[in-house]
Structure formats: structure tokens, C-alpha cells
Design a protein that fits this description.
142 residues; 5 helices
């Protein structure tokens, strides 16, 4: 983890994007195969499956944007892109992470999930903030 903090912003975004994209693909495949097969057990519902797929989709969208930030950040306002990228990383962890846990709570034996409810919209606010900061970075193009 220390290595990650010692890297440049571009490298951090590239590393996070790569791992996040891979995790998104793996979890999307898990939803399509493993979780879908658990619907008949009652531990996963159709709504849970849709929630899980939403988490994977949003994670992938924002992983791709982080890749773009890593590739093109020098063409835009550094501070805005930097802040936007960190907002996207926080959004992925909070939004997608909380949805993954909420969707699989019954399957993994997580009984106390009330604390997860508020985390999802906080992650969504990080996503929204990241998109707005990205727009401002475009307006302040170098």
C-alpha cells in the first residue's frame, strides 16, 4: 500500500484502474454464473442480482475514466483531474463496495447491514463530484 502512495498521480490512477477493471470483470462474471445459480436457494434474489450487476457496471465505467485520466491528465488542469480521480476511486470503493455487500449479505451471512445503506449514496456523491470536477478540468484546459 505504501508503494501506491509513493507513485505519481498518473501511475496511481493507472494501477487503481487496472485492478479495479479486473475486479469488475471478475465480479460481473461471478454475478452471471455463481450468483445467478444461487437464486433458487433464496440467499440471492433477482433484485440482489441486479444490484450486484449495477455495482460491477459502475465500477467498470469509473475504472475506464481513471484510465483516461492516467493517459491524458497532463492536457488538463492537474489539480482538478487529481481531485476527480480520487473522487472516482472513493466512489468505486464506497458505492460499488457497499452494493456488493448489500446484494450478497444473505449469501455471506452478513446480518447487520443497516450501516451500509448510507454508504451507497455517499459513494454516489463522490462519483457526481468527480464528474463535475472533470468538467471543470476541461473548462480550465491548459
Amino acid at each position: 500500500m505504501l508503494f501506491f502512495y509513493l507513485c505519481s498521480m498518473k501511475k496511481q490512477f493507472l494501477i487503481f484502474s487496472g485492478f479495479s477493471g479486473a475486479i469488475s470483470v471478475a465480479l460481473g462474471a461471478m454475478a452471471a454464473h455463481f450468483l445467478k445459480s444461487k437464486i433458487e436457494t433464496g440467499l440471492i434474489t433477482d433484485a440482489n442480482l441486479l444490484t450486484f450487476e449495477t455495482a460491477a457496471r459502475y465500477q467498470m465505467y469509473h475504472s475506464v475514466v481513471l484510465l483516461a485520466f492516467a493517459l491524458f491528465s497532463e492536457k488538463f488542469d492537474y489539480k482538478m483531474i487529481h481531485k476527480a480521480g480520487y473522487c472516482f476511486m472513493a466512489g468505486i470503493v464506497l458505492f460499488s463496495g457497499s452494493l456488493y455487500l448489500l446484494a450478497t449479505a444473505g449469501l455471506i451471512g452478513l446480518t447487520v447491514t443497516g450501516w451500509l445503506g448510507p454508504i451507497t449514496p455517499i459513494g454516489g456523491l463522490f462519483f457526481i463530484t468527480g464528474w463535475i470536477l472533470m468538467a471543470f478540468a476541461g473548462l480550465k484546459k491548459k
